[in-house]
Amino acid sequence: MKRERSIAMTIFNYFTLAVALFVVFFPIYSIAVGAFKTQVEYYQSGLALPDNFFNLENFKRVIDIGDLGLGFRNILIILAISVAGNIVLGTMVAYAVGRFDFKLKKAIMGMYLVAQVIPMVTTQVATFSVIQSLGAYNTMLAPILLYLGADVLQIVIYLQFVNSIPKDLDESAMIEGASLFKIYRSIIFPLLAPATATLIILKSISIYNDFYTPYLYMPKQDLKVVSTAIYSFIGPNAAQLNVISAGILIIFIPTVVLFLFMQRYIFAGVTNGAVK
Amino acid sequence: MFNFSYKTQRYLILFGFLTIPVVLSLTFSYYPAISLLYYSLTDWTGLGWDMNFIGLDNYVEIFTKPEVFSTLKNNLYYLGGGLVQVVFALYFAVILTGKLKGRNGFRVALFLPYVLHSVATVIMFKNVYHMEYGSLNTLLGALGLDSWQQSWLGDKRIVNFALAFISMWKYMGLNMVIFIGALQSIPGDLYEAASIDGASGWQKFRYITLPSIRGVLELMLILTLTGALEAFDIPFVMMLGANDTSTFVIHTVNTAFKYQNFGLASAMAVVLLIMVLLFIVIQRKLLFREGRSE
Prior knowledge:
The complex is a heterodimer of chains A (276) and B (294).
Chain A: H1 2-34, H2 39-45, H3 57-65, H4 68-99, H5 105-117, H6 120-133, H7 141-148, H8 152-164, H9 167-175, H10 180-191, H11 193-209, H12 212-217, H13 226-234, H14 241-275
Helix pairs in contact in A: 1-14, 3-14, 4-7, 4-8, 4-11, 4-13, 11-14, 13-14
Chain B: H1 6-39, H2 57-64, H3 66-70, H4 72-97, H5 103-115, H6 118-129, H7 135-142, H8 159-184, H9 188-196, H10 201-212, H11 214-229, H12 233-239, H13 248-258, H14 262-293
C-alpha cells in the first residue's frame, strides 16, 4: 500500500517536472528553430524544424543591421574594467574589515547593508544628476562607475573566506618581514580565488543583462551595448520575427555557455547569498 | 611602504583600501538618496540647474491625482505572479532535494532561464505571444485549442498576466536553487527520526521543512514584494508601458525623462522608497518578535 503510494508520488513528480521542462524550453525551442527559417518559411511552417539548419542569413542580417558586433565589443570593455575593479575593491574591503579592528568598522559594514536596502531603481533620477555633473553622461565611465562599487552580498561572501584563512599565515609572513600589502597580495587575494570565481560569473551575468543603466546613461549610438542594441533593433524591425529570433539566440549563447561550464560556482554563489 | 612599522602600515592599509569603496558608496548610493529628498521639494525639470523650492506640492500632486497610484495596481500582477512562483519554486526544490534520478539535470534545466539575457528574453516572449505567428497561438492551434488563442499582448484583460508570467518564467529557477540551498542545510536525521515515528510526507514537510527554512522563506517573500513594487524591465521593453501596463517605476521614469519633471519624479521615487523600506521594517520587526519569544 505504502509502496504503491510512493510510486504514484514519483510518477506525479516526474510528470510535474516534465510540464516544467516543457514550459521552460518551449519558448527557447521556438526561437531556436525560427532563427534558421526564411521569412516565408517562418510564417508557414509553424513549430516545425527549419528546412535548412545552415541558413545563416538571419544571423548575418541581425549582426549587421542590429549593431550586435558593436554591442558585444562595448559590453566586453565595460565588463572587463568594472568586474576587475569590483573584485579588487571587494577583496580590499574584505581584507581591511576582516583582519583589522578599527573604530569605523561597524559603520562601514552598516553602510553596505543600508545601501543594499535602497532600491537602485528608485534613486536613478538623482544618480542621473550625479553622473551628469561628473561629466560621465554618454561615456562608458557612467556604467563602469555604477558597477564598480561592491555590494553587501559580495562583502559577506568574501568575509566568510577571509575569516576562514588562519591568522597564523599572516603572522608567519610578518615574522619573515612581509608588509601588510604583500600579505594581502600574496596570501589573502590568492586564497579568495574560489569566491572570486563565483563573484566574477555572477557579476558578469548581471552586468551583461542590465538594460536600465546603459539605456539611461549611454543613449549615444556608438555606445550601444548588447541590451540596448537589441532593444533598438526590434523597434523598426518588429515584423521580421525570424531575424529577431536569430538575434536573441546569439545574445543567449554567452551566458548559457558560462552557466553550463561554471554551474558549481553559480549555484554556490546564489545559495550562499540568500542563506546568510 | 615596505619600511614602515606595522602600526603605520595598518593605517595606510585601512585608509588606502577603504577610501575608494566608501567614496563610491557615498556618491552613488547615499548622495542620490539624500538629494532625491531635496529634488522632491522642487520644480526641477532636469534640464540645467534652475530649480525653485515648492515645498510639498509634488507630494500633494501624487496623493491627489489618481493616475500615479493607479499604476500600482499593475504591480499587483507581478506580486501575484511572484507568490505563485515562490510556491512552485518550493515544490520543485523539495522534490529535487529528495532521491530522484536525474535531479542535477533538472536543477540545471529549470535554473537556465535566470541566466538568459533579460531584454532578449522579453523579446523572445514578444515572438511567443505574437497574435498571428506567435508560437503560443500556433501551438494551441496545432492542439486543436483554437478557442484558447488570444491576443496575448493586445487584450487589456490578459496583457498584464502575460507579462507577469515572463517574470515567473525567469525567476522560478533562481528561487528554487535558493530553496535547495536552505533545504540541504536541514540535518537528515531529523527526517529519519520522523519516519521512525511514522510521520507522513506532508507532516514532515509541515513540521520539519517549513520551520527550518522560515528565514529564507520570509526573505523570499520580502524580495517578491519589493521586486513587484520595482517591476520595470519587462513591461518597459515589451510595451513601453502602453496598453495599461505601466508600472509605478515606468511612470516615474517617464515623468523624469519624457515629461522633464524631475521634481515630481523624485517625489514619486521617495514614495516608492518609503514603501519598500516600510515592508522591510515590518518584516524585520516580525523576525525580531519571533526571535524574542523563542
